[in-house]
Write a structure and sequence with these properties.
It is a single chain. This protein is an alpha/beta fold. It folds into 2 domains: 2-165, NAD(P)-binding Rossmann-like Domain (Rossmann fold), CATH 3.40.50; 170-295, N-(1-d-carboxylethyl)-l-norvaline Dehydrogenase, domain 2 (Orthogonal Bundle), CATH 1.10.1040. Helices cover 45% and strands 14% of the residues. The chain contains 11 helices and 9 strands. It has helices spanning 11-22, 52-56, 69-79, 100-109, 123-127, 139-152, 167-195, 200-207, 215-225, 235-251, 257-274; strands at residues 2-7, 26-31, 47-48, 61-64, 88-91, 113-116, 119-120, 131-136, 153-160. Strands 3-2-1-4-5-6 form a 6-stranded parallel β-sheet, sandwiched between helices. A 3-stranded mixed β-sheet has the order 7-8-9. Helix 3 (69-79) runs parallel beside helix 4, helix 7 (167-195) crosses helix 9 and helix 10 packs antiparallel against helix 11. The protein is globular.
Length: 308
């Protein structure tokens, strides 16, 4: 049996923990700072821990899927009294390039095998065990991690033999910059359609099946057109990732004007009360918060409540 401690059971962490519970040969202990978010996993067979230290005691693998690098650092420091040398730390939180070395230093101080392993995918791929794992870590960790990685993802791409260099995290930020750009572009195109009194479906039909069409355009357009902002990847999380992308670029001497503008759009949508909505709600950042345009579906002559 492989014993896995899952620290962080939000949208992504809970889905990953659920798939681990269903995987043969895997025992799961789950912890979340808000206990109510982890308790439903008990029905799947997980043991619910009261503290991070309780969760990691005796674990072969520690999987962190928390909000950001600060949360991962704080949680693992709380777990420190129960950390055992040789335990694998599968660090899947999108932590950013500045905090990753700090996390790696903490792992080294406790003799943990550190694997930098952010994932690509949102709620549905996580629930279906279809995430793509971007991993960097030592060979010694790879075989023990096979049952874990096969339970949470459909593909694992090993990008480096050393998790402390941040190779996987840097690749994740590049991938996320594209995801957020696609989302912002979709939201702005539909906002412009509304402003110019163009039927959004006419736009979607015009690009359908061609090089301008893509899955994200279709998925985020559907969310906006149906006012269904059930979070797959929330505005608040997208805003955090956008900031990490811009900060990483600045540190590398790269200017990202579109990413910086996108970060501001997410911030504005969050300030309008859409932080918990799916990131497609960046659509509302195109309108004044008090405007009727910002509280209705982008269909000509038809309005409906927002997805709040």
């Amino acid at each position: 049996m492989t014993s896995v401690a899952v620290l962080g059971t939000g949208i992504m962490g809970a889905a990953m923990a659920r798939n681990l519970c269903r995987a043969p040969g895997v025992d799961v202990t789950a912890w979340n700072r808000t206990r109510a978010k982890s308790e439903p996993l008990a029905a799947e067979g997980a043991v619910i821990a009261a503290t991070p230290a309780e969760a990691v005691a005796g674990a072969d693998v520690i999987l962190t899927m928390l909000y950001d690098g600060d949360a991962a650092l704080t949680t693992m420091r709380e777990a420190a009294p129960a950390l055992a040398p040789g335990t694998i730390w599968l660090q899947s939180t999108t932590a950013g390039v500045e905090l990753l070395p700090v996390l790696a230093e903490l792992a080294a101080a406790h003799g943990l095998l550190f694997v930098d392993a952010p994932v690509l995918g949102t709620r549905a791929p996580a629930e279906n065990g279809q995430l793509t794992v971007l991993a960097a870590g030592p060979e010694a960790a790879r075989t023990p991690l096979e049952p874990v990685l096969s339970a949470v993802g459909s593909r694992t791409t090993w990008v480096a033999d050393d998790g402390t260099t941040g190779a996987a995290t840097r690749l994740k930020l590049v991938c996320n910059s594209w995801v957020l750009t696609l989302t912002q572009g979709t939201a702005e195109a539909l906002a412009l359609a509304k402003g110019l009194d163009v039927e959004p479906q006419a736009f979607l039909d015009a690009v359908a099946g061609g090089p301008l069409d893509c899955g994200y355009l279709q998925a985020k357009s559907k969310a906006i057109l149906t006012s269904d902002y059930t979070p797959s990847f929330s505005v608040t999380t997208a805003a955090k990732d956008a900031r990490l992308i811009v900060e990483a670029a600045e540190g590398a001497g790269v200017r990202l004007d579109v990413a910086a503008a996108g970060a501001e759009r997410f911030r504005r949508a969050e300030s309008q009360g859409h932080g918990g909505d799916d990131m497609a709600a960046t659509y509302f950042a195109s309108f004044d918060a008090s405007s009727a345009s910002g509280t209705s579906k982008p269909t000509s002559g038809k309005s409906s409540p927002s997805g709040d």
